[in-house]
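Issue: ligand-bound run for fe (ii) ion - logging full I/O for the record.

Environment: standard queue, default settings, no custom constraints.

Inputs:
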Amino acid sequence: MIDWMRRTPLDQHGGRLGAAEEHPGFADVAYRRRRDRLAAAAEHHPVGSASPRVEYTEAEHATWRTVHAALVEAQRERACREVLRAGENAPVPADRVPQHEEVSDHLEQLTGFRFTLAGGIVPNKRFLGAMADGYFHAVQYVRHPAMPLYTPEPDVLHDVFGHGTHLCDPWFADLYRTVGRAAARVESRDALDLISRLYWFTLEYGVAWEDGSPKAYGAALLSSYGELGHFPRADLRPLDIPDMLRLPYEVAGYQPVLYAVDALPRLADFLHGFLDDFDEDTCARLSLPALPERGFMARPGPGGTLDRRG
Ligand SMILES: [Fe+2]
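Outputs:
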């Protein structure tokens, strides 16, 4: 039995939450077997080696097409213009699930990034640190077909639509590397947790003001039809690191608090300003509050998006 099916609640990536047992994948043994088989290929997979080719089924391609049509429409209305511009170059076919290697070949030409295989939980040090070397951990499995606009865990749709769009744009790719370099410099769990939170509230769930309206740029928002519809009603706060650190962990519902930068280009100043000389002493030097819990993990895993087991 795979872990994420055993636990509740499910994560926020799909934009709708509920008990794990409510998810159609929970009782679908064939689906779970397929998902687990694709995830198992990531075990002992060295960062940077080629992902295996997956023979996706017609049902999986159909799920992709359904989500693609919904997301393209929703992003047109709710995504930042910089994201829409990046999307023009993104390796996101409309009709089929793309292979990791073709996505990677495309990204590499544009920004030097490649996908590297993940099967679920990836420790912060590996997940964040690999970004310094131009590798982004991505999964290959597809969400359950009965609920194509919702997924209890990040899937290939999330990784390609969200992170794949970012990583074909040099400006976004630089921010991933900035996060990665900071993570590569530190070892302590607290320091990695802090970087993980910063990554989470910006590149995963970030919002930017644009002509007086909040627009999505975070990968989790960009790849979730539900979140794209809901995020303007969240508690939108200005970027504030101490506030991000104090925020209690929410386990149910849409993300209730999101952080909005006043204009997307300023995000680079914010992240570079904090992360470029980040080290083990940064928290003490800036008297930052301790994280409410330990073990924040930026790479969603089978246990949920914000895995707290650390
Ligand atoms: Fe993500």
